[in-house]
Amino acid sequence: MQHTENSIEIIGARTHNLKNIDVTIPREKLVVITGLSGSGKSSLAFDTIYAEGQRRYIETFSAYARQFLGGLERPDVDKIDGLSPVIAIEQKTTNKSPRSTVGTITEIYDFLRLLFARAADAYSYNTGEKMVSYSDDQIKELIYDEFDGKRINILSPVIRSRKGHYRELFEQIAKQGFLKVRVNGVIKDLEYGMKVDRYKTHDIEIVIDRVAVKKDEDTDKRLTESIKVAMHHGDDIMMVIEQDSQEVRFYSRSLMCPTSGISYPNPEPNNFSFNSPKGACSNCNGLGIVNEINLQKIIPNPKLSIKSGGFAPLGEYKSTWIFKQLEFIGEKYGFKITDTIDTIPAEAMDMILYGGNEKFSVVSKVMGITKDYKIDFEGISNFIKNQFEQSESASIKRWAKEFMDENTCSECSGTRLRKEVLYFKINEKSIGDLVQMDIVELQQWFSDLPNHLSDKQITISFEILKEINARINFLLDVGLDYLCLNRSSKTLSGGEAQRIRLATQIGSQLVGVLYILDEPSIGLHQRDNERLIKSLESLRDIGNSVLVVEHDKDMILRADHVIDIGPKAGKYGGQIISQGTPAELLKENTITAQYLNGKMKIEVPKTRRKGNGKFLKLTGATGNNLKNVSIEIPLGQLICVSGVSGSGKSTLINETLYPILNTHFYNAVKKPQPYKKIEGLEYLDKVIDIDQSPIGRTPRSNPATYTDVFSEIRSLFTMTSEAQIRGYKPGRFSFNVKGGRCETCEGSGVRTIEMSFLPDVYVECETCQGKRFNRETLEIRYKGKSISDVLNMTVDEAVEFFEMIPKIYRKVKTIQDVGLGYITLGQQSTTLSGGEAQRIKLAGELSKKDTGNTFYILDEPTTGLHFEDIRILMDVINKLVDKGNTVLIIEHNLDVIKLADYIIDIGLEGGKGGGEVLCKGTPEEIIKNKKSYTAQFLKKELS
Fold first, then answer.
1. Whole-angstrom Cα distance, residue 185 to residue 620?
2. Residue 27: what pLDDT?
3. What is the C-alpha to C-alpha distance for residues 783 and 800, in angstroms, rounded to an integer?
4. Apex CA 338: angle with CA 332 and CA 341, to 5°?
5. Strand, helix or coil for residue 785
6. I need a labelling partner for 876 at 20 to 30 A (CA). Which of 66, 450, 767, 938 fits?
């Protein structure tokens, strides 16, 4: 290999399954790494190149800073030359905090806050008038203009519409040397011990001065002094009352309503932030949603009595303090705990739910004696709310949440901000209005904005608007025109989150950086692919190297250089089988090349299934952007829901249909989005949703535990003669409980080193060398293999090894059938790709006995899959449908769409331009539609 200035050279890479490979990657080019799932693409791009880049960056820190970071392991590679600074844009990197939104990730919201703090006009929330603020000299001039020749009182407002007797306040005012106060509109002399009715609301002002206004030097001096004192005591607000007409005027150094006198603080950027106490709505703390008690969940059935468990949180009668208190309340209000809840008097219910603290006596009718009772009861509703808000325990919080609903905050209507913040407006829109617009609307609003601004506003906002417009255009370039800025980042799909980060990176305009992207085309419709590729090309054109791990046909063919890793997956992969320009790749004989040049393809079925003649009908779905959508889903078929990104597919299926089915079969708690009715549930007997979320978030979770095959393997090990002599039970072979596991790493095989401001780093446990178990446990062998050896087997090896054990064989065989023969049984879930995790879930479901009336929902199952993997996956799914089940797939991939028996296409655009069913029917019927974007691309695929 010759060393050149314009390439990155990797020599001897052996990370994971890479077979000591050497590779040269050209710089300042768009390079695509492709190959089967699990062939080693991510091992090369992320675990070798990115890991080394990050390690070199951390080595530039001082020794002092590095001690907090621990040592980052050097990836297993001999040498990497020509590496520039590396930025990785992965799928899993968005913040799951409820405070993170599209606006905050892209920084557009930060610029909006600055714009509103500097250029917005404030309006009164009482009268709608424009707020005014004055300097002391301006106030003096206004008094001369309006009250010349008249007698006035100058006052400082100190109490506004609040209850209390205010005796201490009056004493304090008197000590400061003032003689008069105005209480509720009446001027009074201050007297010793003066106070007002504590249960009524009051307005109190201090009388600072009484003066006849005339333009001479003495009055001028006196006015200046009085204004200063009045502002000091009135928190920058003062009142002027004309003595004859009693006309009241307010003046303020801050923003103030000239009629009602309410004032706002002078705007700063953090007044517009829902993450700052200055701007956040006080009711929901800036989250836009609040958890409120749902009485129907506390009392699911009012026909039950307290004794038989009518209050769900309490359960059935037990001899405890709480039931004693309920009996006392019954004594007071004349009911028994055996009465049904709907017969209990309203004031008694009020005390049971919201608590009370009383003593009372009851005369016994039979014995004629008086009994004293003391009730000191917190109330069931209050108890649940306090547990939710104050408990340290996650399980207690979860328990309390079962009796609560997440509702939009009633005070800020979900805008997350204080009331007064929403009355700062630019061109009649508040910051709350702007974050609810989708990106297309927002771009139109900002392009038209300069026509509505004053010269002063234009000067102030020129630079800010330039930054906002640039960032909005980058979001449009990566196909995210349907998002709005207040969309919470935890509701974004992996592809959306990645493209937002891409837009932010394009916005930063760095040069000479190596960008590594992990399948940026996930969740993108073919129509938007072109825009994404152009964005990556523009990153390349300003002088960056772009390295993309990708399976998308368009992306591979548009690359400057393609590296194909294979030939198969897992330990049968890890080699460079071809590299060069796309034109050179097409001449090769690799699996990727054969799919690209048409020698291999996923065949279109000769006939489409007719289904079983039954339908599931959903009527009137109106969640998010859906426009009163009604669909008929034919059962017993493979159904595909397609449409551009943001058109409403996930809202219709994942947020409306799935929660309805889930609640029907399993009493789930998630509320579906609004709909009118559903028919045909009686034709199904269970629903299974298989999505892209990780199967476990800790190194303890793995394919063997997830598919439950590990329980069977542990039982098998306990049957060996040596284990029976030693009396070992299945728990001995578990790495999650004490006994058989290595206690240094507590059975995880790795030790976690916590980083102060970087993600945690995992290093191999030095006691068990990553085997997870202690020496005694590892001495038990089945067919010569210890439990640790079994966890390190690939699925293909396990299928052979356990051929004679039907329970285990069935489960590992299904993992092999979905194309995951190359992963090991004990591989940490955290190292599985999104596509692999989804197929393990699918295998877990397939290994269960199916009834032929199951409804499967899969959300983009082709994520991370090569053409060949898609073929294997679709064979498995087709087998499911052939048994009579219904499989519904949300998908953009044409290889899947063309295999469907029935397609529902939603569109036309994303966001507000979507939410309607464009066409439905077989692929052959769909391609006749002139409007649908899916139809245009499907037509090319079928021809």
1. 57
2. 95
3. 12
4. 75
5. strand
6. 938
Q: To which residue do tokens 């959300």 refer?
A: 859
Q: Is 491 helix (H, G, I), strand (E, B) or coil?
A: helix
Reported pTM:
0.80
739/742 Cα distance (integer angstroms): 8
Q: Is 579 left (phi over 0), alpha (psi -120 to 50) or beta?
A: beta
d(CA 456, CA 120): 11
- Residues in contact with 8: Cβ distance below 8 Å, sequence separation at least 6, in sequence order: 24, 25, 27, 49, 80, 81, 82, 83, 84, 514, 545
For tokens 């790709």, the residue is: 833
- Tokens (6 digits) for 389: 């808000």
CA distance readout (Å), 324 to 204, 313, 317, 327, 607? 49, 16, 10, 5, 70
CA distance 743 to 714: 19
Q: What is the 3-state secondary structure (H, E, C) of 825-857?
A: CCCCHHHCCHHHHHHHHHHHHHCCCCCCCEEEE
In angstroms, rounded to a whole number, what is the distance separating the alpha carbons of residues 465 and 484?
18
Q: What is the pLDDT of residue 278?
A: 93
CB–CB of 211/226 below 8 Å? Answer: yes
Element (H, E) at 778: helix 775-778
Q: Encoding tokens for residue 821?
A: 């023969």
**24: phi then psi, degrees, rounded to nearest 5:** -110, 125
pLDDT at 755: 64
Question: Side chain identity at 446, as an amino acid letter?
Answer: F
Nearest Cα to Cα of residue 131 among 259, 268, 273: 259
Tell me the C-alpha distance between 507 and 495, whole Å.
Answer: 18
Question: Residue 141 contacts by C-beta under 8 Å, 6 or more apart in sequence?
Answer: none
Query: What are the DSSP E strand ranges found in 803-913?
Result: 854-859, 886-890, 902-907
In 39-185, which ranges are E strands? 77-81, 86-89, 121-122, 151-163, 180-183
Q: How far apart are CA 10 and CA 17, in angstroms?
A: 16
Q: Look at residue 306 in the predicted model and tell me its pLDDT.
A: 92
What is the enclosing helix (H) or strand (E) of 633?
strand 629-634
Contacts of 367 (CB under 8 A, 6+ apart): none
- Degrees to nearest 5, angle at CA 513 with 512 and 515: 145
CA distance 700 to 705: 9
- Strands (DSSP E) contained in 494-598 are 514-518, 545-549, 561-566, 575-580
The closest of 848, 850, 872, 851 to 861, measured between CA atoms, is 872
Region of 200 on the Ramachandran plot (φ > 0 left; ψ -120 to 50 alpha; else beta): beta
d(CA 99, CA 488): 7
| Angle value at C-alpha 227, between 224 and 229, nearest 5 degrees | 110
d(CA 305, CA 15): 65
Amino acid identity of 940? K
Longest CA span, the chain? 113
pLDDT for position 850: 74
Q: What is the per-residue pLDDT for 779?
A: 95
| Upper half-sphere CA count for residue 125 (Cβ side, 13 Å) | 11
Hey, which residues does 328 pair with through a beta bridge? none
pLDDT, residue 365, reads 66
CA pair distance 603, 366, nearest whole angstrom = 89
Q: What is the mean pLDDT of each run of 10 residues along the chain (943 residues)?
A: 74 94 96 92 93 89 78 86 91 75 94 96 93 91 91 94 91 94 94 91 94 90 94 92 90 87 89 95 94 90 92 91 89 90 93 86 72 84 92 88 89 94 96 94 96 94 95 90 90 80 85 93 87 92 96 95 92 92 95 94 93 95 93 97 92 95 85 93 92 75 92 95 95 92 89 67 85 94 95 94 95 91 87 77 83 90 88 90 94 95 93 92 95 94 88
| Nearest of 674, 631, 630 to residue 656 by alpha carbon | 674
Proportion of the chain in helix, strand, coil states, percent, rounded to 5: 40, 20, 40
